[in-house]
Design brief:
Blueprint lengths: L23 H16 L4 H6 L4 H17 L23
Helix pairs in contact: 1-3
Length: 93
């Protein structure tokens, strides 16, 4: 059951519910922990070579990904291409 606001018209914010996170920071930490746990599952090619600390590896990968998302120029080797629909390739016949 989804909690509702006192008026009963809109879903209540789960961060303010007694059984949910009490602050946005707590919600963010829970989300980050879930993302890290998911990423800590090694990909097939990572499993082949192994990992001394999959949890730490996941944290580093996600931090790098976050930095690249927030600041696209953060990685010097990243090439960001922006193209319009008029610049698409011709379809193969």
């Amino acid at each position: 059951m989804t909690p509702t606001s006192p008026e009963g018209t809109a879903p209540a914010d789960p961060r303010t519910q007694p059984d949910g996170p009490t602050a946005a920071g707590e919600h963010d930490r829970a989300r980050d922990a879930q993302r890290t746990a998911t990423r800590a599952s090694l990909l097939p090619e990572e499993g082949t070579v192994g990992s001394d600390d999959p949890q730490e590896q996941a944290e580093v990968v996600l931090e790098d990904s976050e930095a690249r998302t927030e600041v696209p120029d953060a990685a010097p080797t990243t090439v960001l291409e922006r193209r319009g629909s008029e610049e698409t390739a011709d379809p193969l016949v």
